[in-house]
Amino acid sequence: MFEDLLDLANASILSHGGKKIELENDLKENFSSKGDAVIRSWLWDVPGFRRWRLTRMDAGKNLQVFNSVAYPEYKNNHPILGIDLLWFGVKNKLVAVLDFQPLIQDEEYFSHYYQGLKVLNNLYPSFNRTKTIKFYDSNNYFSPWLLFYSGDYDALDIPLNKIFENFLDTYWQIHDKNLEKYKYLCQDEVKQLHINYDIYSRERDPAHGLFKSYFGEEWADKFLSNFLFPLTNQK
Ligand code: BLA
């Protein structure tokens, strides 16, 4: 599951001039000691972006994960692309969170970057859960138009691939339209907001326990510090 989405994302990055960055062996691929799960990651250097990472975890019928974050360059103040897709096999439950994660909660910033996501949010009402999100603070690094589904996978009314493709295309539009001409935050402010994003995400991320149970604590710590949120150590 999610393999198609990963292929789609990697192909889309490649077509935008992305170059693969080699990862250390155990970050690139790691098997659980019981042999019941594998986690693979990709890192890209993409024009206009500081860092673009993707991760797929396959624990068979228990759990499937696809997670990706794209951090634009400090010199522009685009929202961060955030994707977190999880499927829990026992309950056949899908949790899908897709957002243009805003650096700040500000009307002018929203009116500049969120027209496209607003359209998608209206187009896919089943991805418009109004319940408060767990673990995170919905007013911090989440937009009012995030696409969020949590429920029975079979009850999805629109194929996830279609939503994903549309979402990614809409995000590329921000980039392709060269919206970096809009200078609302200076480079130093953007840098600090990216650092804060990593610190906040690492503190809140419910994935550590999951990684620990499959791959051990040492690897889980390393994966979070060195791959998922490497700015955590900067202040
Ligand atoms: C929820 N994300 C979760 C949960 C897990 C992960 C285990 C709890 C699901 C549940 O029990 O219902 C897993 N997070 C991961 C994994 C990685 C990770 C495996 O970072 C890394 C490989 N999370 C993100 C990003 C977004 C995000 C980029 O990493 C933004 C789009 C959002 N994840 C997010 C939200 C929830 C969540 C909002 C809570 C969903 C809810 O309220 O049910």
Describe the sheet with the most strands: 8 strands, antiparallel
Which fold name is given in CATH as the topology? oxygen-dependent coproporphyrinogen oxidase
Number of domains: 1
CATH class: Alpha Beta
Tell me the series of helices and strands, N- to C-terminal: HEHEEEEEEHHEHHHH
Per the principal axes of the C-alpha atoms, what is the gross shape?
globular
The SS-based structural class is alpha+beta
Rg, Cα atoms, Å: 17 Å
Bound molecules: biliverdine IX alpha
* Low-pLDDT windows of residues: none
CATH architecture: 3-Layer(aba) Sandwich
Number of strands: 8
Distance between the termini: 38 Å
Helical content band: 25-40%
Our count of helices gives 8
